[in-house]
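INFO  loader      accepted 1 record
INFO  loader      residues=343
INFO  predictor   begin
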Amino acid sequence: MSVFTGFGSDNHAGVHPAVLKALAKVNGGYAVAYGDDEVTAQATSLLQKMFGRESEIFFLYNGTGANILGLRSVMESYQSVICSDVAHLTVHECCGPESFIGCKLVPVPTPDGKLTVDLVKSCLVGVGDVHMAQPRVVSVTEATERGTVYRPGELRRLSRFAHEHGLLVQMDGARLCNAAAFLEVGLNELAGRVGVDVLSFGGTKNGMMGGEAVVFFDSELAGCFPFFRKQGMQLASKMRYLSAQFVGMFEGDVWLRNARHANAMARLLAEGLGEVPGVRVTQKVEANMVFALLPERVIPVLLKEFFFHRFDERRAEVRLVCSFQTTAVDVERFVGAVRRAVR
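INFO  predictor   done
INFO  writer      dumping tokens
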């Protein structure tokens, strides 16, 4: 394995020992395939404790599948999704929603990645006009792709407005754990209880090997999802291995400790960078991501030793992501390297 220090994504981190232990535990003997096993029942029960006993839970391989198939189950191809212009859905899903659903995405410029009622309201045009795509879903990301976090009140206002106008709310919760850890609230305080209808709930970025869940807070919306999951190539035959990861992550609140640590490392990183002349942190650091403007000349130098992404190709803004594996030493090394490169 490479010895570089990775700030490119929390996907670059390894697998938490608790998850590996859970996988090893279920690896003996036989289990009925496609989710009709005891481990999947246990994982489902754990998540229903988090999201409500009435919620419907489905496990999938990855976040792209969770986002797209969750949307597919609640909309038609002539309808549209209103989302932020930096939403993963519109930037990094390789036209998946357009290809698999046939729907239209309506990206809205957002300086901090967060939608507001006024921004959504501006997109409600052509309703009932047969010549135009019909608004159906408001999609939010928690924590956002800019590392900012919606407060419960913000989500409640968005959901109330959406529902009053016949729209549903879908949440990309790839980093929902980080948002909940930052606000010190339960996961459902940022999901079902504030009016989210469909949640794509992430585990991979927070220490799992690979696995996500789609959560429906209204069972009627979940009616066709089992068929869409199969048709969309996201139904695991050996489901126990996806489910076991959630058991390892949610028994004993490993998810919360991981998220708290990643967030703390991001704050430490932002504090260090903020003290370097010529470096400016551009977004509030509320989850596990730091966005910063660096002098253009130092970026190639730093990339020889560290891995990270340039967020905006038009300017020298970089994105630095911390994970449960990030250490204070990693942060100190990077900040020191930035300081030396700037000098």
